[in-house]
Each structure stands twice: as structure tokens, then as C-alpha cells.
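Standup notes, structure subgroup. Blocker cleared on the zinc ion input:
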Amino acid sequence: MMSTVPFVIVATVTVIVATVSGKESSRHEILRGHQIWQLSNDVGDVPLEVMQKGLLDVLGHFGTSKKVRVPFHCLEEAQRLLQEKGVSREILVEDLATYLEDHERLSKRSATMKSDAYNCSQPRHDDYMTFEEMECFLKRLSEDNPRASLTSIGKSFENRDLWMVHVRPNDPSDSEEAGAVWIEAGIHAREWISPAVALHILKELVQDNGSIGNFDVYVVPMANPDGYNYSFTSDRMWRKNRRITSQPGCGGVDLNRNWDFHYGVGASENECSEVYRGSEPFSEPETKALRDAMTKVKDQLKVVMSLHSYGQQLLYPWGYTKHKTAPDTSDLIARGKVFADAAKSVHNTVYKVVNSAGDLYKASGATDDWAKGVLGVKYTYTLELRDEGMSGFNLDPSHIVPCSEEVWEGLRALLNEISKE
Ligand SMILES: [Zn+2]
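Run returned:
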């Protein structure tokens, strides 16, 4: 019940008729009338089915909270379908735009209040960074650190750079033996804590004196810059990239359903769905660029970790099926627990080690399944960062530092363990 408190408090003061009552418009206008619902417990695959039709948006990848967002124009139809399937719902937020406006007022923070004083030498501690701020930091990082090099591995749909940082090991003479680690962040636009943590990890990596073993580390801190930018300017809940599709008002491809491994399972052909898989595997410039860059170093790769939020779970493959066990599952779980124990030791945050498809619904076309199934990387994970659903994507920036600290400790322990193999 604790997890619903902030939503419920705001729901009691929201007024859904804000658009017709003359309330001044805000940058959250696009979410006016959208609602957050808490579904009853035994929902099975029902939310996924309704999401595939484009009528709702499951919040939290694998159903840790069974919360869904329902667009204003889908409220009746979604409610009817859920009722038909015997799923009941409680309204947590009556109007998402008002909820976000109130939240910003309370935290006295908004995108327009960002100071211009950012000097790019460190990732921000106090707020989520714009894409331009991230670029500034990455350039500075690579200029200041001889072990780090910055490469654009491609361009997004709207022509933004997809940046990759390669951090070479402290003692390069051993690097071939140690192998490489791939960290991807920001593939889902609204999961702002993901790139924030990736940038802090980069800062730690360039300062590390060998405590992670002798790995080469490749980090793509922002895999979906168009969607991320859009989630700042226009739609805080935006998840997909910014592909223009044939249906007006239904743009975007879910980049984490676009990879070519059991493509289509648990994803949607419907352009309006939050899990729209795209017109074909690797239809998107972002996933193509990631695929090609990963393929270049595939023989070195020992670990692939994709950072998402929210749920505090370390997920291991397969995501596409509940009925088959991935190779190396016992090692994936054992090393995953090493990560979780080390992460917990920092701020007592619990990360559960679970199978991707095991909780609520299966999903294919994700980075971790592809890296395991196609590239044959032994350790592939999706890490769902803070929180467990209390704030969800709207996580206060005060979590950036502690979340980064615990993930760094977890990663260090994980890599140390793997380097002994
Ligand atoms: Zn995600």
C-alpha cells in the first residue's frame, strides 16, 4: 500500500476538467486527462493484451506494481475491456498533467529552471541532465581522460548523435584476457534515472584503478536522444523513439522491442501501442547503430547490461519465453546475487534477481535477449533501477547519487567475480 501513497494524495486534489476551466496550459498539456490505474492482483497477460491494442501503457516493465497509464481518449474502451476480462481497477491519478504540475511545484523544479552554470566537468547531482548537457559532459570527459574515447556510433531518427564512450582498462597489457563490458542506458525515454546513473558510472570508470578487473568498458549513456528530449519538452511519459509512423498522433517505435531475436513475441504491430515493435527487426537507426557497434566487439564481450527503470530488479534472460531456460542460467543468477548483495551494502536498497519473463509478461526484441541469443554473450542483464513504484519514472533527482553509488558497487563486485573465471 505504501507504494500508492503519493499518487493517492494528488488524486484527491486533481480536477479533471482543468482544460475547460481556463487553467493555463503547461508543458504537460499532452497528458491532460490521462489517468493512472492500479489493477487488481490476478491480471495475467490482460494488461499486455490491452497495451498491444494501444489502449494503455503498463508502467514498470515487468509488472512490479501493476500500475497502468490510460490516455484520455482510451478511458472507456480500456475500462470496458478490462472489465470483460474480470480485471478491476482503482484510479490513483485522475489527471496526470495536474499530477505532474503539482509535483513540479512541490519540488520547485522544472526544466526551465535549470541553471546555465553547468560547466560539464561532472555529471549533475542535483537534477536530470538535458541531452545537450550530457554531450558537453561526455566531450569534456574524453578530453580530460586519456583512457576514455568518445565515438558517435550513428545518428538518431532526428539526427542526434548516438554517443559511445570506450574506457580502456588500467593495465591494457591484460585486456585481451579480461574481455569487455557493454552498458546501455536511456533506450526508454522517460526512464531518466538510467542515463543519469550511466554518466556517474563513467565518472567512476575513468577514476578506477583496476578494482573492476581489467575490462574494456563500452558505455552508451543515451541510446534514445530524440525520445529523451521529447520527454523533457512535451511528454514526460514518452517511452519510444520519435519515428514518424503512418498514423497521426501515434509516432515512435519501442526500441527495446526492435531487436531481432524472437522478434514480435509480446510486442505489438499496432503503431499506437507503447510496445510497437517497428515495421521490421532493426527498422530503427538507433537499434541498428547499437547492433553494429556491439557486433564489432562481440568476441570480447563478457557482460551486457541495459539500464532501465523502475522496479529494482536485475533481470536475466530469456525475456521472450517463460518456458525455456537460457544457457548459463545458474551462473547468471549466482553473479546477479553478487551484484545485488554489493548494491544492498551501500544504502540497503534491495535489487531482486529475477527472470525477465517470469513476473508479469514476456517481451521479445530487447537488448539483453539479443546479446545472449545472437552474440552469445554469457552475462546479459536488464537492470531496473530505483524505485519500486512509489514515484516511478518521476523519481526525485535526490536519488541520482545514491542510486549511482549502489549500482557502481554492484557492478564492481559483479565484474570482479567474473574476472576470476
Ligand atoms: Zn525501460
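Discussed briefly. DSSP finds twelve helices and twelve strands in the chain.
Next: hand off to the docking folks.
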